[in-house]
Amino acid sequence: MTTISAPTLYTERLMLRGHQEADLEACVTLWSDPVVTRYTTGQPLARQDVWTRLLRHPGHWMLFGFGYWLVFERSTGRFVGEVGLARFKRDSLRNHPELDALPEAGWVLMPWAHGQGFAREVVEAVLNWRDLNLSHGATFCLIDPANLPSLKLAAKVGFQLHLHLDTTHGSLEVLLRQER
């Protein structure tokens, strides 16, 4: 069996690397912040749920050859957030089989890192990596329509509205980006 793990990526200001067991506390801090979870999980996550999230990311790399990275400032080593590609098999998308095999892009940053251009920097790095390393023709993302900063970022990096979903948990915009 071939083991595939997240490659380390570098941008001008940031380093992206795979998840490790020692990252649990940083991830708990991220996912317990109500600003972070407002448009994602809807509520802060318990430590055991964050642990489960951390464990699934290496599995994506092993099964699909893509996954999520943790993001750190290069100059300080400070934890910035998570970004990556996944196949979450979301119930809200079960009536959209055209999206099932496509990687879903996602990003979430610590509140202190908002407004500094970090999100665009890491999302562009991940999408560039995706275009060079994956054969899928497109990538999609799901964004709460009230999350205007993420909708603006998605448009800047090439995502376009594909469809609008009304789910039991609220509305979502599904945006699609073609391979470059």
Inertia-based shape: globular
The ordered H/E elements are EEHHHEEEHEHEE
Tally of domains: 1
Q: Any idea of the CATH topology?
A: Aminopeptidase
Based on secondary structure, the structural category is: alpha+beta
Question: Looking across the biggest beta sheet, what order are the strands in?
Answer: 1-2-3-4-5
Helical stretch tally:
5
Q: Please report the total strand number as a whole number.
A: 8
Distance linking N and C termini: 31 Å
Mean pLDDT: 93
Q: How much of the polypeptide forms β-strand, as a percent range?
A: 25-35%
CATH architectural category: 3-Layer(aba) Sandwich
Rg: 15 Å
CATH first level: which class? Answer: Alpha Beta
How much helix is in the residues?
25-40%
Residue stretches low in confidence (pLDDT < 50, at least 5 long) are: none
Largest sheet: 5 strands, antiparallel
CATH superfamily: Gcn5-related N-acetyltransferase (GNAT)
Task: Compile the SSE list and pairings.
Elements: E1 9-10, E2 14-17, H1 24-31, H2 34-37, H3 47-64, E3 68-73, E4 79-86, E5 104-109, H4 118-133, E6 138-143, H5 148-156, E7 160-167, E8 170-178
Antiparallel strand pairs: 1-2, 2-3, 3-4, 4-5, 6-8, 7-8
Helix pairs in contact: 1-3
Structure report:
There is one protein chain. By secondary structure, this protein is of the alpha+beta class. The chain has one domain: Gcn5-related N-acetyltransferase (GNAT) (Aminopeptidase, 3-Layer(aba) Sandwich). Helix content is 31%, strand content 27%. The strands form two sheets. Strands 1-2-3-4-5 form a five-stranded antiparallel beta sheet, with helices on both faces. A three-stranded antiparallel beta sheet has the order 6-8-7, covered by helices on one side. Strand 1 (9-10) and strand 2 (14-17) form a beta hairpin. The chain is globular and about 40 Å long. The N and C termini lie far apart (31 Å). The model has no long low-confidence stretch (mean pLDDT 93).
